[in-house]
Structures are given as structure tokens and as C-alpha cells.
Structure of D-lactate dehydrogenase (cytochrome):
Amino acid sequence: MNVSLTSEPLRPVVQTRPVPPALIEALSQRFGKQLSLAQVVREQHGRDESSFSVPPPDAVVFAESAQDVSDAVKLAAQYKVPVIPFGAGSSVEGHLLAVQGGISIDVGRMNQVLAIHAEDLTVTVQPGVTRKALNEAVKSTGLFFPIDPGADASIGGMCATRASGTNAVRYGTMRENVLALDVVTASGELIHTGTRAKKSSAGYDLTRLMVGSEGTLGILTEITLKLYPLPEAVMAATCSFASLAEAVNATIQIIQMGVPIARCELLDAVTVRMVNTHSKLSLPESALLLMEFHGSPAGVQEQVETVQAIAAEFGGDTFEWAHTPEERTRLWTARHNAYFAGVQSRPGCKVISTDACVPISRLADALLDSVLETQASGIPYFMVGHVGDGNFHMGYLIDPNSPEERATAEQLNHQLVRRALALGGTCTGEHGVGLHKKGFLLEETGVGAVAMMRAIKTALDPDNILNPGKIFEL
Amino acid sequence: MNVSLTSEPLRPVVQTRPVPPALIEALSQRFGKQLSLAQVVREQHGRDESSFSVPPPDAVVFAESAQDVSDAVKLAAQYKVPVIPFGAGSSVEGHLLAVQGGISIDVGRMNQVLAIHAEDLTVTVQPGVTRKALNEAVKSTGLFFPIDPGADASIGGMCATRASGTNAVRYGTMRENVLALDVVTASGELIHTGTRAKKSSAGYDLTRLMVGSEGTLGILTEITLKLYPLPEAVMAATCSFASLAEAVNATIQIIQMGVPIARCELLDAVTVRMVNTHSKLSLPESALLLMEFHGSPAGVQEQVETVQAIAAEFGGDTFEWAHTPEERTRLWTARHNAYFAGVQSRPGCKVISTDACVPISRLADALLDSVLETQASGIPYFMVGHVGDGNFHMGYLIDPNSPEERATAEQLNHQLVRRALALGGTCTGEHGVGLHKKGFLLEETGVGAVAMMRAIKTALDPDNILNPGKIFEL
């Protein structure tokens, strides 16, 4: 198969469908003040953290219940008008853009933690709950939810993109941590996938089919997640390396040794500088690993000793410890804000974000040349990596008004993805396909797998009203 | 919704489709000696460990490559004749039974370990490799594959049923441990799902859609799995309790405390007796926990101390240690053979196996009454549990010629499943739905979710040739 990646459009194709006044009238009747047609509200729901800009949705419904979602979808289905679920608006891949027009269904008001089953290490939430709000709500139980994308994303959005973050190296991604879902289908019907049991062989895994389906197969209205006991002991440290290569090779060995490290994050020198400026820190401005260890006091001590020995082998400096919970929070908040630190470093820029993930042994091959190519191009960038997972992000900081810069960034992106695929990796570890990686998906999985995805989509959403235009062309 | 479970047939509906001589002729031309029409071969491929007996498939193709599987499916598809993948024949739910006739595709000869990537903790195998053969093949790398259903099942079959076993409490099930698949679809096309990257957000999760689909969506021809470092330290112990309730409640507390126990298995006194007889052991004949601890020496020691303290709280006896690797192997082999120990205890019997799995806090509620009801019924039984996962099996040892015993066992089964569902659990933790749990699946997930499964099946296999009659009615 020979798929040309250069066919990937530099701007998304916008082909809006007409929204009949009768639908707006019916939505208005049903939803009253929960419906907004205001330009500012529509625009707010028609953009995300991606670099694209397209016309906003035709209307926004502020859903307050599964029944609201169901009724909105039923009305839209009558007129074959698109519906786009909206959580926190923090997608970096254009998931929220109304490329075919339609109704944005904002689930932000569905923000209740419905049931904490501490005795089973599970929690059931509405989709608009954010990851920080969830952890606040369960704090008193001694449990926590580890998945932490950079933004304070909604749990619904995190399901939809199969998100992960800094703790995934130990705790897995949304794929491993969602037990059950309530989903409104394309016809407006409410279905249930899964139970609170830890494992099940009861039929097709609809839960995991929905996780990562980016709003194209259903709208999530209730989510049951795994929780974990807060570790008895937590230690966090940074370690500087003279070169990026040494930091990456130390990481590879940490993972290959089977150390159950909880976080293993990499910043290059350029990015450390941006983070220092943004978060008012004074981290040493060279390649930096940020690590966290969870376990019993003795277990954590063992992990630390092993990792210190590996780091020393690769010329790593002495560990700098974040001693108090406050210091740890400061460190990880700075890491989570690396994206915004990058954005701030070039006022007015937009970010094109890469998200390749490769088998751990190929991480140096994938990452180092990609950084060198970027530096050679002259495009400003930041580089952060969930390197324990073999996943890293280049953020190309482009002038949105410069077609040349966009083209250069896309070229870098293509080279990076091709390299990752050749090394047995994936074009997206955690951000999703959205508008921007449709060509990459085809190259990665082949025509047959994408045809199977299309067949599923067509079977479950025959009128293509659920977030159309994302993941693949129909 | 009100679904009557008593509508579950006590015998499967057999409705074979005609297999035209032209298909047999074409298969014979293509496959020569790899095709068998012999009665004994067909019968061997038309039964499994379930209690049902139906006519065998019309022919058996011994596939030796993905191309063989593809060609066999293409020929069968031309004539709309069913194809049933066959691995080790160890299903307990009738997955292999040719209830609509057709061609059994035996992948047992596809038994090569294709690529061991020790540096990435992954391995790629053909579907006919068994779990024991896999572990033999990777032993020299210091890695292992933890998933271990009772039988020496094939990896393909374990994918198809989303199997787990004794290590799942720590290492997860096939759901968590399959990275990528090659699949022959209903049209005979070969597709690829996933890469060797540890995580991905690249489109619909076809890998996990296939895992647990019981041969109804495709036939697996290549499987990439996660491997784990052999733990530095392993300790295994048994602990006896005066009552089943105390053993179960100790288990609940072990899990709730977050102990990363590697195995936590329960046998009741009746079953210990059967195992002692079958495996020539002298385990104390009362409720028994079999446990294993993996980690660093210090980590294992910590786990053992915590669990000993919990066990003592519930009146558990002093731990009996399996000191050597040979003693450990003997203990776990005996546990894996508990099913056969049960069968041997009543010559000529057939087993109806339950497989409920509940949230850990509800395990006592689910398990204890089910054992009492079974004892009251007079039906001989065995009881084993992957209790760390909230999963347990009653094996009703019925006289296959006694409709009364079958009816009583089914009644017990229904009561047990209803109880598990009411407690937030699932009807099947690891065996799959097959022929026998279709009514239970409907009750568990509801009409809407099963309708979605049907829509997917119909989209991907419009002529219903892939293992028809399993999971749900069409």
C-alpha cells in the first residue's frame, strides 16, 4: 500500500450542512435558556487548542442530564444535523471543530461525582467532571485517579481521546482505567456498557470501543473509573543530563529493568528554559528527567537506588528532591503547564503538536533525530516526553499567519511520524486522530483496518451525525 | 426491561446450513491433505469442555498460515457457509460447537513464536501457540507471560474469550495484555490492529474489539503480547481458614489494602479434597487460600507481613510455604487441574461452570450463598475462585443423562448470576458467553448494548459466517 502523507490537508475541509430553522425552534422549545445561539458562545465552542480555525457550530445546548443529551441528539437526528460533544475544550487535535456545522452539546454542567465506592476502588462520574475536581472529590477516601493530561480536561473528553499523561507509565491510560460507560447513541438511545466488576468476558468490549472514539460513536453521559490507594510513600526528583541522548538512554534502561516508576518525564534544555520562565522556577537548563516513585517506604527506597545507579551510568547529576507535597505539586504543575509555557514563549503563536509513541527500545532513534531536524528548521518548538511510555511531543510554535511556517512544521511532523511508524510505533499515543492525523492513521493501520472502523461507524451512525469529519473520511 | 432468564435453552438450538459439495471440492483442491472429512477428526473438532453435544462440523481445515486462513474463509464466504476457529479445544462455553454446521479452521499448526522483543517486553506469536509453549520459548530472556487459564489453552483462544486466570489480580487479563493483532475478516481480508507501542489513541480500538469477540468478528492469525520480567523474588503459601466466610473476608481486605498480590486463589473444603485426590497432595481439607507474592526480596517480605496480619485477623492458620520452585509448580499445577479433579470425582459427569465476577466488596455476598444453595441442592460441585479479582467458579458436576440434574444445575446457575448482577457484577469474568450465557448477557447489559453488538456483527459479517450462534441471537 502506498498512501501519500502529503495529501494531508494543511487546513481542514469545511463542508457545513444546513441547520433548518425548524430544528433550532424545536431545540429552543425543549431547552429554553439551555440553548444558546449567541456568537460569542458559539465561537467559544468552536475552537480548541489545535492550530485550526473554522466557523463555529450553529448552536450550543448546555446539557444538564443524560435525558438532555438524548433529547438533543434525537432532535438533531431527525434533521440529520451533526452533534459535537464539548467538555473542557482542551483538545489539541481539532476534535471540537464544527467542520460540518451542527450543534455543540456542552456537558460541562454535568459535573457531579455520582458514587464513590471506596471499598471497591471505583467511582462513577458525569462526563463534565474534570480530573482535578475528581481528585478533590475523592481525596478524603485516601484514593486517587492517576490519569492526568496536561490540561484540566473533562473525564468525558479524556475517555473520548483515550488520554493518558504523566502517570500512565505505572497506572495505564484511560483504556485501562474505564470500567463502564453510559452512552447516548446516534439515535438518542441510552445504553450501558460494562459493570463495576474488575474484569468481564461478557460480549464485545463496547467500553473500549467507545474509549478513543472521539465522539464519533456516541456521547458519554456516565463514566465508571478505577481508583488507586494514595501511595504510602511518594518521592519526586529531577535529574539533569549533559545531553538529551543520555537522558533518553537512561530512561530506556529504567523501563527495561522493570522499575515500577510512577512518572518518568523528559524536557529538553530549550523547554526547561520556557518552563522556568513560565513557572518561575530555576531548574538547571539542560536535558532533564522529572521522576516520581510510589510505594511503601522500603519499596520507594529500592526504586530510587536502582534509578540513581542507572542515571549515574549515563552521567546524570545528583538527584534534586522535591521534599514536601507543596514542592512536588509545584514541580508537576510546572510540567503540566509546559504546553502553555511553550505558547507563552512566542506571543500569538499556534501549536502543532506531535504525539508519536514507540516501543521503548526505539525511543532514542525516534526522538533524537526529530529534535535535531526541528532545531535545523529554525521553527521555535518545545519538547516534552512521557518517555517511560515511549511517548513524546514536539510542539511546533508557528506563526498562524505564515503559510511557510505551517508547511515547514507539517513537514517536520510527517518526517517524525514516518520515523515512528518505521520503528513499530504509533502516530498518536494519547491525543487522538481528530482532524489532523487522518492520513497518518491510514498509513499506520492500513486501508483494511480503517475500512473496518468506517464500517462500524456507518453501522452505528448511518447518517454520520456524531462528530463527523473526525478520525477518517467517510 | 424484563428479560426472562428461564428462556435460556437447556440445549443449544442446532440449525445447520447446507454445505454444498462444490465448496468441499474447492477446499479439497486448495488444501489437499490439510482438509479432513473424517468422522473422528470432525468429532474431535466439534466438542469442547462444555456440557453440550451437537453434530460436528462438516469439514476441518488445518491452516498453516494466515494465507491458509484467508483462503479458507474466502471459499466459505462464497457459499455463505460458517467457519469456526479452533485452537486447543478447551472452551467451557461451547464456543467450538458447530451449531450451524460449517468448516472448523484448526490453527493448531500455526504454533510459531515469531518474534521475541525482550528489549521492549513484547512477543509476537501465531494463534496456535499455547500458554505453556509461549513461556517455554521466552524463558531464557528472563521474561514471562502471566495469563494462565486452567487448561493449556492456545493464545488465539485466550484472546477470543478475553481469558484471565490466577495472575490476573496483578497482571490483568488478555484485555490488558494484547498489543496488536492480525485478523482475517469475514471476507477473507487480512487486517492489522495496533502496533508494538505501549499505548495509542489511533482510532477505534479494534484490538480490544477483537479480544473477547469469540471468533464472531474475525479469525486471529498473529498476536502481539506484553511480557513481564520474572520477579526477582517469588514466595507462595497456602493458608487455611475455619470457614469459607473467613477466607473470603480476608481476601476482600487484602485487596482493599492495595497489596499487589500476584495470585490469590480460593478453594472450599470439598474442592481441596478433590484436588488432594487428583494431584496426590495433602492440603488441609478446609477453606484454603493459595497465594503468591512477586517483587524484590524486601517488597515480597512487606506483602507477606501485611497479608499474614490480615489472615490472622480472620483466624487463618499459619502460612504453609512452597519453598522451592518445584513445590510451587506442584501447588499451581494442582490448582490449574482443579477442574479436572472435579470431573474425575464423578466419573462420566459433565460440568456446567459458572463464572460470575463482582466488585470486591460484594464477594462474600455473591459467593457464600451460592455455595450454600448448591450444597442444599445435592448436586455434586467444585468451587474455585480467582477471588482477588472478585471472580469465582462453581462447577456443577451433572449426570449428562439426567435432565433433572441439568435443570437443577441451571436453576442454581441462574440464581447465582442474578445475585451477581444485582451486586453490580458480570455473568462472566473470563470464560465468555458462547452458547450458554446469551440470556445472561442480555440481562446484564440490556437490550441496547446487545443491539449495538449485533449491529457491529452485521456490519462486519453480513452473511453471519464467523462462528454463528455465539454471544447473541441475530
Observations:
- Residues 1-9 of chain B have pLDDT under 50 and may be disordered.
- Chain B has four domains: 5-108, 113-229, 233-339, 346-436.
